[in-house]
Design a protein that fits this description.
Elements (H helix, E strand, L loop, with lengths): L2 E5 L5 H12 L3 H5 L7 H17 L5 E8 L5 E8 L22 H13 L1 E2 L2 E2 L4 H19 L7 E9 L8 H15 L3 E7 H9 L3 E8 L10 E8 L4
Parallel strand pairs: 6-7
Antiparallel strand pairs: 1-2, 2-3, 3-6, 4-5, 7-9, 8-9
Bound molecules: coenzyme A (COA).
Protein name: N-acetyltransferase domain-containing protein
Organism: Aureobasidium uvarum
GO molecular function: acyltransferase activity, transferring groups other than amino-acyl groups
Length: 238
């Protein structure tokens, strides 16, 4: 089997949503975030309706790529990066092949409508907001602590990485990661990620070091074991 990196357009939203949910559903704390009546099929559908709006917004700083299976053309993994603001509006554009094309005003209106139709006040339908807030608050606090001060403003943040469950452990995550790290090195940027336990080793193998860890016990929400997140930084290579 062989895989290639491809740029992202909104038409890929359903297949990106499928790859994202397939991987995250295997994580107990992510599954716990949803009401028991919410099915993965519903989550994939809702996400596919929300994604076009998310893909076309903040396009000056967001960069996206997918990996596809060369035999089938199927999307098997997705990565999203955030450029530092000083690289957001340069001429020429930094990393243009990873930027989603600008939408027409008519398309923007359609994508916004699609987003709203599956959202409760901008929030994901069927999600347990009390658990989300409980798990996210310490992560946001740690993120703010790490990011206070100048040097970390010059960073390339890895915002999302997911490989569909059945395609994991074939080097696809590493292939996508390396493409972003080449950009980081070319521009002398630190790279920053908040990683799940599943991703930490991969990032470590590519030069990231853990600077902080947050472990949360969510047994009062039905969790059977604590969940850890790793805050990791990689220095640029010459
Ligand atoms: C984390 C994640 C993105 C990794 O994706 P992946 O495509 O499986 O990544 P890779 O295949 O490049 O590397 C994963 C492991 O497989 C190993 N591997 C790579 N090619 C392999 C092969 N051909 N055979 C066996 N193992 C292989 C790598 O060495 C790596 O092992 P290690 O990190 O345990 O040493 C994926 O597990 C995932 O989507 N998890 C759920 C979402 C998540 O946690 N994302 C990260 C949040 S920041």
């Amino acid at each position: 089997m062989s895989f290639s990196i491809k740029s992202v357009d909104v038409a890929l939203a359903p297949s990106i949503a499928k790859a994202m949910v397939s991987a995250r559903w295997a994580e107990p704390h992510w599954k716990a975030l949803f009401e028991s009546t919410t099915t993965p099929t519903q989550i994939v559908y809702d996400l596919s309706q929300r994604l076009p709006w998310n893909l076309i917004n903040n396009r000056t700083t967001k960069r996206h790529q997918v990996a596809i299976d060369n035999a089938t053309g199927q999307v098997v993994a997705y990565i999203r990066w955030i450029l530092p603001t000083h690289l957001a509006s340069t001429d020429p554009v930094v990393w243009p092949e990873a930027q989603v094309a600008e939408a027409t005003p008519e398309d923007r209106a359609v994508y916004e409508q699609m987003f709203k139709a599956v959202s409760d006040d901008g929030k994901v339908q069927g999600m347990r907001m009390d658990l989300l807030e409980y798990l996210n608050t310490p992560l946001e606090e740690m993120d703010a602590k790490i990011n206070e001060g100048g040097p970390f403003l010059c960073k390339l943040s890895l915002d999302y990485l997911t490989t569909a469950t059945e395609y994991q452990r074939r080097g696809i995550g590493a292939m996508l990661l390396k493409a972003g790290l080449e950009v980081a090195d070319a521009h002398g940027l630190r790279s920053y990620v908040t990683s799940s336990a599943a991703g930490a080793k991969l990032y470590q193998n590519h030069g990231y070091k853990t600077v902080e860890t947050v472990t949360m016990d969510y047994s009062q929400f039905g969790g059977t074991e604590p969940v850890s997140d790793y805050f990791m930084i990689r220095e640029p290579r010459q």
